[in-house]
């Protein structure tokens, strides 16, 4: 991902290139080569803008389908807690001769945080029986309840850990959601940007040895997901998004100046 220093140097380079294209096009315009001026201006800047847009669009498909953004949001906050190394992502555990896939486990001295991500959008209603519905225009549509998923994960984890060592948690990873009836949920619900403070402030009765907890679960892990490649891809996605927007901003400004010069010179 771009650092602030790299972004600053990139802004200067972009400004120089866009201005140089504008300056040359304006020079051609002043000596009467209107057609060549327009072609040069729009072709050069069109290609310059299209390159990051194509790359951004191509990566965006993988980001959406692979849920990279959801994992990135959570891991970014966990990294601040310096426990990312104790995070197990998309782990497949052996449980009663079956493979159980678990979304995310965070091993801390306070216990094992059993995390399920929720990416629902819109108005969500949680009823007293823990059923989740999406509401729109007085209509209620049943949703897959994250609590059921949590319970299935917990069932597998209790074959390794004591009940009190497991801390269930639902993390909302979408900003475009409004939840009503959150108090009826048997499992705490937090936003992705609250996970850091929630784990830090969690007041467990006992303190555990993190290494010992990890060693207990390790033999049951069939495989885990390597998140480093996903994080690199998502950072690349953010970089191309930023590149496209910065180029678009400069090109828009000089496009207006170029059009104003055309109007002025044709008077």
Automatic annotation (TrEMBL):
Residues 62-180 form the NERD domain. Keywords: Membrane, Transmembrane, Transmembrane helix. The chain crosses the membrane at residues 7-25, 31-51, 248-265. The keyword Transmembrane helix applies. This is NERD domain-containing protein. It comes from Clostridium vincentii. The lineage of its organism: Bacteria, Bacillati, Bacillota, Clostridia, Eubacteriales.
């Amino acid at each position: 991902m771009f650092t602030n220093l790299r972004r600053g140097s990139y802004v200067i380079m972009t400004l120089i290139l866009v201005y140089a294209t504008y300056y040359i096009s304006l020079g051609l315009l002043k000596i009467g080569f209107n057609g060549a001026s327009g072609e040069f201006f729009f072709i050069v800047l069109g290609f310059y803008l299209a390159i990051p847009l194509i790359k951004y669009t191509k990566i965006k498909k993988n980001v959406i389908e692979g849920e990279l953004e959801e994992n990135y949001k959570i891991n970014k906050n966990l990294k601040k807690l310096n426990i990312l190394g104790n995070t197990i992502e998309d782990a497949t555990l052996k449980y009663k001769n079956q493979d159980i896939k678990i979304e995310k486990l965070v091993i801390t001295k306070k216990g094992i945080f059993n995390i399920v991500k929720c990416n629902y959008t819109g108005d969500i209603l949680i009823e007293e029986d823990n059923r989740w519905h999406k509401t729109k225009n007085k209509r209620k549509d049943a949703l897959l309840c994250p609590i059921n998923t949590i319970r299935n994960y917990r069932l597998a984890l209790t074959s390794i850990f004591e009940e009190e060592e497991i801390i269930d948690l639902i993390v909302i990873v979408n900003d475009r959601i409004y939840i009503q009836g959150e108090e009826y949920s048997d499992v705490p619900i937090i936003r992705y940007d609250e996970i850091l403070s929630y784990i830090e402030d969690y007041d467990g009765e006992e303190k555990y040895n993190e290494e010992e907890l990890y060693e207990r679960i390790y033999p049951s892990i069939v495989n885990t997901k390597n998140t480093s490649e996903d994080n690199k891809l998502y950072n690349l996605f953010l970089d191309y998004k930023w590149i496209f927007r910065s180029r678009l901003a400069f090109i828009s400004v000089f496009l207006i100046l170029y059009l104003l010069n055309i109007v002025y010179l044709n008077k």
